[in-house]
Amino acid sequence: MLHRLRQWICPDLAIDLGTANTIVSIQGEGIALDEPSVVALHKGSRKILGNGTAVGKLAKQMLGRTPDSIIAVRPLKEGVITDFELCEAMLRYFIHKARHHSRGLRPRVVIAVPGSITPVEKRAVFNSAERAGAGRVYLIDESKAAGIGAGLPISEPMASMVCDIGGGTSEVAIMSMGDTVVSNSVRIGGDKCDEAIVEYMKQHFSMRIGVQTAEDLKLELGSAYPLEQELTGEVKGLDIISSIPRKAIVTSEELRDALHGPLESILNCCKQTIEQCKPELVADLADNGMVLTGGGALLRGIAFYMSEQLGIPVRVDEDPLRTVARGTAICLEHLSQWRHAFDNGDGDFLRDGPQFMKRETRSSEIKLALLAILTGICLYAVPSACSDRVSNLIRDVSKPGLILVQQFKDWQTQTAEVSPELSRVEQLETRLSELQQENRRLELQSLQLTEDLQYLKQTGVPSYQTQTGERLLVPDLIEAELLGQSSIALLKEGQLLNQGRERGVFESSFVLQSELPLIDQGTRQGVQAGFSLYAGQTVVGKISEVGRWTSSLIPITSVDYRGSARIARKTEQGLQLGTDGILVGMGEGKCQLLQVPPTESIQVGQDVYTGEVDRELPLNMQSTLGQPMYYGRVIEAELPRGAPYWKIIVQPAVKLAEVKQVSVLRKIVNPRRMLAN
Amino acid sequence: MKWISLLLFCYLMLIVQISFVPDAIIAGSRPNLILLVLCFALFWFRNAQVFLWAILAGLICETFDAAIPGTGILLLTCLVWMAFRVQTHFQIRSLFSRFVLMTVMAFAFDSVFQILNGLNAKTLPDLVSLTRHAGGNAVYTAVAGLGLLLACKFIQRLIPVDFGQNLQNRTTYPSRFSH
């Protein structure tokens, strides 16, 4: 799955890094780029022309036609990198051009290289590709890639022979059972053929021509075997004797003569490879023959020439220029299957094999991970006294820095001036409000601690919990202002609602007027429907609907209000709380306490507190408070004959109209648990 | 050199976390700078040494979070192992992918660490609020990490000396070509 995800995010690339042409294929998409391996740059600054875009086709047009200040060069010669920087720049350009989307990741890249290159030259290819933006780099022999690309049965136990005639090198390999049995490489290819033509023209026609012209001539008239109808062509160049331009007529026979030397070398390489092969495989070759790939395979009659000289069937691949690229792309598609055939750069080519280094890296990773896991388990298992020592050590180490910061903060506080704009009264009011808030928080904390203490006394806990103690979710009070008529009018004037998409309000929804009072806190402050509201220790209502910035509340006198409540009796032992009943609002500033059984002794003037567990509250808030909160006083109590419950009327202790500020009780994640203590 | 630099960075982050982060809460979220140190170790070392940093970061988290001993180390080791494999597999180097990695790590660590260390309410709303809180913290952590990474890059450009180069056996050189 990880591989599929990776392929989707960042497809891998296959590159045939040839001396003459570079072909880039994208995994799952095929060949994306086929351009000459040429770069044009300023001679002095060595910067690539056109802000780095004079690479490939554009640069090839300049080849041999540049002024002194500009050079168009090939970063590779005879299959190996001759200019490291230029090769890196060229690869970077090609990789960026081939990949339309990178999504921030580096692709894995399989590069086909000649089999004859040295470890140092391989390292140069690795480094160039990595610096050009490749992630993991794999190298594959060109001959093997050519065999795969030509569709030869290289995995079968029979010989498959391939000859890849590239621009700089010619690779000959005999493969069987998925690997190379014998391979040879000569640093002779299309370039050497061009040079041979240039030399031939100089010697036989006393004429100087460029490499580009020689290549054109080779493509137009070149052949390796006598043709049925010989060709003739015109060539323009510089007369060496008179030093003036002139034309000459060249025939395909003459060019064949010119190309004889390089072709002879390639043929010898093929013969040498066959000689080194085991007899059984040679017998297979007599039946299966050899496949020619690469640009050199496009030379007319080369298959006949080779077949005649070697005595085995020879054929040219359908698309010889792209055979290696095709094979490299196939390897990329089946990377896990062919991985063993690659050099992956993990190893030191001069000493150890890559596989050895990879195993060692993985082994150290597993060892260190196990060490970390064991450390964790040991810390858990050892007595708390030992783990405390480690914790104390870390605390002690951090102490100097903390002291320094504290001193800095103290110094800053001393130097900070008190704002002169605030009057003394305002300052005192602010201070008083802060202290009141702090006082409420401390009350809650005290309740929390009492509850925890009782729990610990009753149950007992494992040793490690005695040192932790901090609960994850803790109650928290936030101050809320009750919005007056003017504020609500302002909201209405502004055509604003205190609801949003979270509560299912969308465009074209009906708007109904709500008569419920509002407070200035909403979802942004973490308020949720059902949260209780207090004025000091007295319950005043609960949240009905929550908007983004405001919320509406149900006063306890409202008919919509429901809450658990019980009556407290003053006895000699202290305050004694009775059975839970349900407090409902009656409207007109009064409440009714329902479902109190006749077994309870009720008198007018008794106090009403919240129930032991308020089932009407949201689940996560039911056990928040450890102490009952005050509702009001009984003003009427009647037990009609035969009735199952008391009929009790309660007068709330606080009228909502008299209150300007309330506290909303909510539950938050303990800030001490987030590395803040 | 890298070890000492990162150790100093870790100490600095610890002091900042304890002293200044409580004053820098945005929308109830706070960054976990100790986790950032671990992420930076992952990005800078790019090898198995990061597990040693997981031990150190885990110890710090446990100490200053009143947690059950060992839970921080175990959790961070597991997380960093996954992150290490992802980094190796995807060759993560860009700022965006590192930002995503930091966010995911911070979110996973914050939520699982709190659950492991005594989530006393087991209702869905509690978990939702915890997840929301951890999400906020994770984004804040990743943004802080991204800022630090950018700052590092900027400072590296200002300094003319390349600290990463091998002075004994120079095998790399900066490219003069940019695309």
Write the layout of secondary structure elements.
The complex is a heterodimer of chains A (677) and B (179).
Chain A: H1 2-9, E1 13-17, E2 21-26, E3 30-36, E4 39-42, H2 49-52, H3 57-62, E5 70-73, E6 76-77, E7 80-81, H4 84-98, E8 109-113, H5 119-131, E9 137-141, H6 142-149, E10 160-165, E11 170-176, E12 179-186, H7 190-205, E13 207-208, H8 211-221, E14 232-239, E15 245-251, H9 252-276, H10 279-288, E16 290-293, H11 302-310, E17 314-316, H12 323-333, H13 335-338, H14 354-381, H15 384-415, H16 424-459, H17 463-468, E18 473-481, H18 485-493, E19 518-519, E20 532-535, E21 538-546, E22 551-555, E23 562-571, E24 574-577, E25 581-587, E26 590-594, E27 607-610, E28 630-638, E29 647-652, E30 661-669
Chain B: H1 2-19, H2 33-45, H3 50-64, H4 71-90, H5 95-116, H6 124-158
Percentage of β-strand residues of chain B: under 5%
**CA-based gyration radius of chain B:** 18 Å
Q: What overall form of chain A do the CA principal axes indicate?
A: elongated
> What structural class should be given to the helix and strand makeup of chain A?
alpha+beta
Query: Number of DSSP helices of chain B?
Result: 6
The radius of gyration computed from the alpha-carbon positions of chain A, rounded to a whole number of angstroms, is 44 Å
CATH H-level superfamily of the largest domain in chain A = Rod shape-determining protein MreC, domain 1
Q: Judging from the principal axes of the Cα atoms, what is the shape of chain B?
A: globular
Quote the average pLDDT of chain B.
Answer: 82
Any low-confidence stretches of chain A, pLDDT <50, length ≥5?
Answer: 345-359, 462-468, 507-512
Would you identify the regions of chain B where 5 or more consecutive residues have pLDDT less than 50?
165-179
Helix percentage of chain A = 25-40%
Largest sheet of chain A: 6 strands, antiparallel
Number of strands of chain B: 0
Tally of separate domains of chain A: 4
Q: Sketch the topology of chain B as an H/E string, one letter per element.
A: HHHHHH
Quick one: which chains have the greatest interface? A-B, 79 and 71 residues
